[in-house]
């Protein structure tokens, strides 16, 4: 095993309300890090390419109905089924830029009224991100961006609740960026944060979430 000689990859997560610009910024960050010759991959949750992911996708597009608790656990299981692959990649030096993670998991379910501690419980033990970039946008502004699509959660009132729940989850790994700034300014800020994190994590072991 030569992984001890390779500095580990960094787990970078982008979070925020629907239509805050996360997906665009994830793509830009991956290209930037690739351009610097760093091993990096773009990931996203939900990962709709697994059996569990397909169940989630069918729920999100209103083709199936599930109890709030059941869908919550599926989102969580969708992260657990990827956990060991994630760990292998990180240990082998690949940085992962992930579009949504456990913070979405907890915020979107708690926004429905589920107890936040109950929502956090199945996430405990997943790999903790080294950096969480929260793209901060007013729900009204997000709604006005090209309008919401047809997926289940893309409704203003619900997104207001989600925003409130996100606020409760802030921890030391969080950096908040104003999503109303020009795209390239957001991009530059995220690049700076990512490089900083890659530098400072080289000797820091991976840690686990919420234990
Ligand atoms: P996406 O648009 O980024 O693919 O995410 C789909 C929706 O799923 C989005 O509204 C956020 C929501 N979501 C959860 O409710 N729980 C989760 O754990 C994740 C990752 C996303």
UniProtKB/TrEMBL annotation:
GO terms for molecular function: ATP binding; dTMP kinase activity; nucleoside diphosphate kinase activity. Pathway: Pyrimidine metabolism; dTTP biosynthesis. It is an enzyme of class 2 (transferase). GO terms for biological process: dTDP biosynthetic process; dTTP biosynthetic process; dUDP biosynthetic process. Its EC number is 2.7.4.9. GO terms for cellular component: cytosol; mitochondrion; nucleus. Keywords: ATP-binding, Kinase, Nucleotide biosynthesis, Nucleotide-binding, Transferase. Belongs to the thymidylate kinase family. This is Thymidylate kinase.
């Amino acid at each position: 095993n030569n992984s001890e000689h390779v500095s580990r990859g960094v787990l970078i997560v982008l979070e925020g309300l629907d239509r805050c610009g996360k997906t665009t910024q994830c793509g830009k960050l991956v290209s930037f890090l690739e351009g610097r010759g760093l091993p990096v991959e773009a990931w996203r949750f939900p990962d709709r390419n697994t059996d569990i992911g397909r169940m989630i996708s069918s729920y999100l597009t209103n083709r199936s109905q599930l109890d709030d608790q059941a869908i919550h656990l599926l989102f969580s299981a969708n992260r657990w089924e990827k956990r060991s692959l994630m760990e292998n990649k990180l240990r082998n030096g690949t940085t992962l830029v992930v579009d949504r993670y456990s913070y979405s998991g907890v915020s979107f379910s708690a926004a429905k009224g589920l107890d936040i501690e109950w929502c956090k419980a199945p996430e405990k033990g997943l790999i903790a991100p080294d950096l969480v970039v929260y793209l901060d946008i007013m729900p009204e502004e997000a709604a006005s961006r090209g309008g919401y699509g047809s997926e289940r959660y893309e409704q203003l009132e619900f997104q207001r609740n989600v925003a409130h729940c996100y606020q409760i989850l802030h921890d030391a790994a969080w950096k908040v960026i104003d999503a109303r700034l020009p795209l390239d300014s957001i991009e530059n800020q995220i690049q700076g944060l990512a490089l900083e994190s890659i530098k400072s994590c080289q000797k820091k072991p991976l840690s686990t979430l919420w234990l």
